[in-house]
Design a protein that fits this description.
Helix content is about 45%, strand content about 15%. It is an alpha/beta fold. The strands form three sheets. The protein has an eight-stranded parallel beta barrel, surrounded by six helices. Helix 11 packs across helix 12 (about 300-324).
């Protein structure tokens, strides 16, 4: 599927409980690319209605600058979901994305899509509301390809490692961190046996990343709840980036700069991209599509990679200027 989605920078997505208005201005002033106001897990049941009202007020009254703004609504299996979607989208024209938790099938996304269609027809809303979904159930991972292709409003898929950990019954107490139990011992008798850790969530993450790239979506990694472990967060983000993800949640403000760092091109990557573009351009002028570079073949695939790096840097600079 070929999609023409809004060009959004999505290196960091900051979670903000909608029941905590004191956090809103700080979130707006932060360096997060995306902020979502949470009506779901961060809000107690008796506070749902008040939190929804607080979110609408914040969306309308706070200067959010160039940030992308989302609201995580309650799940479609709860009594609050419909009113969350209808009230926020009707009353907050600044909203960019509806964040749907626990997406388990294409129908879930299409149901939300139809609600958005009806609201926009009813209200004449000029900004088209997009959708991002959390893949955080076994059913969601099993159906991730059909979910990714479900709607042209869908922009991003997030790996919700917290609820996925619960559903898979691994009983890990800290979400997003590696498990020492998921390891193997090297073979050998009478020798020192090394213990090799593995990534217990590789299957789910790789499948989400592939489904997103096949359908023009942004794959985003979810939470790392040990917010006191900066090195662990950075390593987790680097793992996600290596799989093709382009951003990660920040459940604490200290994680924003780490995500922005990992999911931004490095000076070395920018230098490489410039050199590759110059080399391929010179090679093309001579009628060649490939050239050797210190014993390494460089061809048009490398040019695509270089262009993607340059485009990402341009988007970062564009957003930085918009926030200034």
């Amino acid at each position: 599927m070929t999609r023409s989605l809004p060009a959004r920078l999505h290196r960091s997505e900051l979670a903000v409980p909608a029941s905590r208005p004191a956090f809103f201005a700080k979130a707006a002033a932060s360096a997060a690319d995306v902020v979502f106001l949470d009506l779901e897990d961060a809000v107690a049941p008796q506070m749902k209605d008040q939190a929804r009202a607080e979110a609408i007020t914040a969306l309308n009254q706070i200067d959010w600058g160039a940030k992308t703004l989302a609201v995580r609504v309650n799940g479609l299996d709860t009594p609050w979901a419909l009113q969350d979607i209808v009230d926020v989208v009707r009353q907050a024209p600044r909203l960019d994305l509806v964040l749907l938790p626990k997406a388990g099938s294409a129908f879930d996304v299409q149901f939300v899509e139809q609600i958005l269609n009806l609201i926009e027809r009813e209200t004449g809303r000029t900004k088209r509301a997009g959708i991002e979904v959390l893949i955080e159930t076994a059913r969601g991972v099993a159906n991730v390809e059909e979910i990714a292709a479900s709607s042209d409003r869908l922009e991003a898929m997030i790996f919700g490692v917290g609820d996925y950990t619960v559903e898979m019954r691994t009983f890990d107490p800290v979400f997003g961190t590696p498990s020492p139990r998921y390891a193997v011992l090297t073979h050998g008798e009478g020798t020192v046996r090394e213990r090799h850790w593995n990534d217990q969530w590789h299957f789910a993450m790789a499948r989400i990343a592939n489904a997103c790239r096949a359908n023009g979506l942004r794959p985003i990694d979810g939470p790392f709840t040990d917010y006191g472990d900066a090195d662990g967060y950075r390593a987790c983000a680097q793992r996600a980036a290596a799989l093709g993800f382009e951003g990660k949640w920040a459940i604490h403000p200290t994680q924003i700069s780490l995500a922005n760092e990992v999911f931004s091109p490095t000076p070395e990557q920018l230098s490489w991209a410039l050199r590759i573009r110059e080399m391929i351009d010179a090679s093309n002028r001579q009628g060649n599509g490939a050239v050797g570079d210190g014993g390494v073949l460089v061809d048009m695939a490398h040019l695509k990679q270089a262009n993607a790096i340059a485009d990402r840097q341009a988007l970062i600079e564009q957003q930085s200027q918009g926030a200034a």
